Amino acid sequence: xxxxxxxxxxxxxxxxxxxxxxxxxxxxxxxxxxxxxxxxxxxxxxxxxxxxxxxxxxxxxxxxxxxxxxxxxxxxxxxxxxxxxxxxxxxxxxxxxxxxxxxxxxxxxxxxxxxxxxxxxxxxxxxxxxxxxxxxxxx
Length: 139
Prior knowledge:
This protein has 139 residues and is an all-alpha fold. The protein contains 5 helices and no strands. It has one domain. It has helices spanning 2-18, 31-37, 42-72, 78-109, 112-124.
């Protein structure tokens, strides 16, 4: 029971932190929505699909590591669960960094009009946009 409680707490903490950032969701189920809302051109759509596939690959590896960690520590005594939770949290942090990296890549491809639309939508949602230095080409 304690293991389930720790696991639930870690998931909720990760989701709570993710809600602060205004994430595009590259690699998520809403790829077509992103393309429509920001009126992506063909090259941008191709990059969106490629980076979505890369994100899935990266996070599948991390997800496998997390599942293995949980299976390996299925009968871990409660005093050891803190160590396991820190390892699990590190995996979740890596997944979040991957998501943010792909969103940053996509935002770097946005033209000024698309990026301004992103900023506007983030403000409407009271979320913190990911800022991209528009003077540096991050591709």
